[in-house]
Input
Amino acid sequence: MTGGAPLTPFSQRLKGNVARLDAAYRASMEDATAHLRRSGMAGGAKTTGDRAPDFALPHGRGAPFVLSDALAAGPVVLSFLRGEWCSFCRIEMDALVDARSRIAARGARLVMISPQAPSAAFAARTCGLAGLTVLTDRLNGVALQYGLVFRMPDMLRHALLDLDVDLGHIYGTDAWLVPIPATYLLAPDGTIALAHIDPDTCVRLDPEEIVARI
Output
């Protein structure tokens, strides 16, 4: 993480997490980030001004969540995450949950989507919270629609396996496909009003900025 902007509590948590990383894992993350930047893949992701692809995903035991139905009720904050196995995603998920009531107060719904199903602890913590929907995109089908999916480079895959993190087991597929973490603010007409996509998984959009932009 670089830059001279003042650190917010959220960015301080992200920075502190970087400092705690295993050295080999951190080096592999930096190599993977450089690989992604060279590939230019993030440039093909949906971004500000684009139309947000509609989708439907199962949601608990009730009716599926349909993005266009949610947008009919107001703006949607859509956050693509890798899952709870990723410490940076956990920090972002916690911050988004903390900001959820302020997002809802501005008439928007918060939707978090990941290829990893939520843990029992996270599901219990978030169950019934107004204005929050947590979705599982098991095969990254929705993330593919948004242009966010890439195959994890071998050096990072091996580093994760050395830390006993097996995405084949976590995701239920040996493809090792993961989304670039991304956050979108979607206007009720389906237009992307704000997009944050960064190949560096350590860099996330501060929920305070999301609240300010709704």
About this structure: The first strand starts at residue 56 and ends at 57. The longest helix spans residues 87-105. The chain has one domain: 9-213. The domain at 9-213 is CATH 3.40.30.10 (Glutaredoxin).
